Amino acid sequence: MALHDRMVTEALGWSAGDRLGVTDDFPLRFDVMILLVAGVVHRLHHRGENEVAQALWDMTFEGLEESLRQRGVTDLSMARRMKKLVRQATGRRDAFLAAWDAGDGAALRQAVARNVLNGADPDDPRVTGLIEGVAAFVAGV
């Protein structure tokens, strides 16, 4: 799905280098990707494209599994790792979606600060920049 590929590129762009002022590693890429997926899923649901939203969510975890395999995670521990990632992602997604559904910018800033930027201040300009960047990406979907 071309949309998923665009999202991966966008997430890597946000996590690369020192753009967010935190270490570019798997957890950061995961958190940025989940924020992007949540934004796109939110938009798709509001347009009634629930099957596309579900396919995108599923593709995200297929990509995460592939990434973990490339990092040497074996079949013996993959199920446990994926279960943990799905649980974490679902919690983050639900927090982001609840804030968007309520139109609660403060709650969204808190969720992004806590989950993506390791507990940064919700008023940190990086939080605002990331939220605005995701909004711009989602507007183009």
Number of domains: 1
Give helix and strand order, one letter per element, not per position: HHHHHH
Instruction: Report the β-strand fraction as a percent range.
Output: under 5%
Largest sheet, if any?
none
Report how far the terminal alpha carbons are from each other: 13 Å
Structural class: mainly alpha
User: Radius of gyration, Cα only, in angstroms?
Assistant: 15 Å
Q: What's the pLDDT, averaged over the residues?
A: 92
Low-confidence stretches: none
Tally of DSSP helical segments: 6
Q: In percent, how helical is the residue content?
A: over 70%
Shape: globular
Based on the model shown, name its key terms.
6 helices, single chain, 78% helix, mainly alpha, 141 residues
What does this structure look like?
This protein has one domain (26-139). Helix content is 78%, strand content 0%. The mean pLDDT is 92. With 141 residues, it is mainly alpha-helical.
Short description:
By secondary structure, the chain is mainly alpha-helical.
Topology of helices and strands:
Elements: H1 2-15, H2 26-46, H3 50-70, H4 75-102, H5 105-115, H6 125-139
Helix pairs in contact: 1-2, 2-3, 2-4, 2-6, 3-4, 4-5, 5-6
